[in-house]
DNA sequence: AATGTGATCCTCT
DNA sequence: GAGGATCACATTC
């Protein structure tokens, strides 16, 4: 059966209804215009920003990957709009959450003009706040280093799943948002090759915070 | 640190 | 019906 939140026509009306009290982490919400640029420009600028939940969990974004719609064979949107990827074709600044490998959820923020199907996959967070809740959400993990070190790990730690598909990360009224707490992105540097894909491997569209111990992948993949 | 394997089910062809 | 924007654990170096 199709997950209700991936239903093309209903995804907007099926969002979490509860009114946000406040997003705990202090910082400035990113403006809509921040996301309204090509994903390869947005992605590295997203490093060192903070993904925060209204329930108190928050983590600094230390690794991202860009996916560029119609020109990118590794993008879910490469072959056009489907119920699953509909959110990515929607307005920038929303969260596209997908299910993969039969058991994992991953989160992107839609970036670029509406209709282009582009986005940025959040690949790793440095836990900042609500760490006890993250541990509770991932009871089998021994080291705090592994709480959010990987795209499916961080969604589990933050409590993100299909129910959050389509949330508006800009409004700060949907329970999750991305804020700027004053830390600048790392100095510009060339992107790494992307991980975990079978096509489109040649595009250097993965960026991380150099030297940060919460970045995913092997040493060779981190550089 | 690198490699191999099993888990598990949705999505589109 | 095939494969996937992955993780956890075991093994080996």
UniProtKB/TrEMBL annotation:
<keyword id="KW-0326">Glycosidase</keyword>
<comment type="similarity">
    <text>Belongs to the DNA glycosylase MPG family.</text>
</comment>
<keyword id="KW-0227">DNA damage</keyword>
<keyword id="KW-0378">Hydrolase</keyword>
<dbReference type="GO" id="GO:0006284">
    <property type="term" value="P:base-excision repair"/>
</dbReference>
<dbReference type="InterPro" id="IPR003180">
    <property type="entry name" value="MPG"/>
</dbReference>
<keyword id="KW-0234">DNA repair</keyword>
<dbReference type="GO" id="GO:0003905">
    <property type="term" value="F:alkylbase DNA N-glycosylase activity"/>
</dbReference>
<dbReference type="InterPro" id="IPR011034">
    <property type="entry name" value="Formyl_transferase-like_C_sf"/>
</dbReference>
<dbReference type="Pfam" id="PF02245">
    <property type="entry name" value="Pur_DNA_glyco"/>
</dbReference>
<dbReference type="GO" id="GO:0003677">
    <property type="term" value="F:DNA binding"/>
</dbReference>
<protein>
    <recommendedName>
        <fullName>Putative 3-methyladenine DNA glycosylase</fullName>
        <ecNumber>3.2.2.-</ecNumber>
    </recommendedName>
</protein>
<dbReference type="InterPro" id="IPR036995">
    <property type="entry name" value="MPG_sf"/>
</dbReference>
């Amino acid at each position: 059966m199709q997950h209700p939140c991936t239903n093309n026509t209903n995804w907007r009306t099926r969002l979490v209804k509860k009114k946000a009290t406040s997003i705990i982490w202090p910082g400035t919400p990113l403006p809509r215009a921040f996301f309204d640029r090509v994903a390869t420009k947005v992605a590295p600028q997203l490093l060192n920003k903070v993904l925060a939940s209204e329930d108190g969990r928050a983590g600094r974004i230390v690794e991202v990957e860009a996916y560029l719609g119609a020109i990118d064979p590794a993008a879910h949107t490469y072959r056009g709009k489907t119920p699953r990827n509909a959110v990515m074709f929607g307005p920038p600044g929303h969260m596209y959450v997908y299910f993969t490998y039969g058991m994992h959820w991953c989160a992107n923020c839609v970036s670029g003009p509406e209709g282009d199907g582009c986005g940025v996959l959040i690949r790793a967070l440095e836990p900042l706040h609500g760490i006890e809740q993250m541990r509770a959400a991932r009871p089998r993990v021994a080291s705090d280093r592994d709480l959010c070190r990987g795209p499916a790990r961080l969604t589990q730690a933050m409590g993100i799943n299909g129910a959050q598909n389509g949330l508006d990360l800009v409004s700060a009224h949907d329970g999750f948002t991305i804020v700027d707490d004053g830390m600048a992105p790392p100095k510009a540097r060339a992107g790494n090759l992307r991980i975990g894909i079978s096509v489109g491997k040649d595009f250097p569209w993965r960026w991380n915070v150099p030297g940060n111990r919460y970045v995913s992948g092997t040493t060779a993949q981190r550089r």
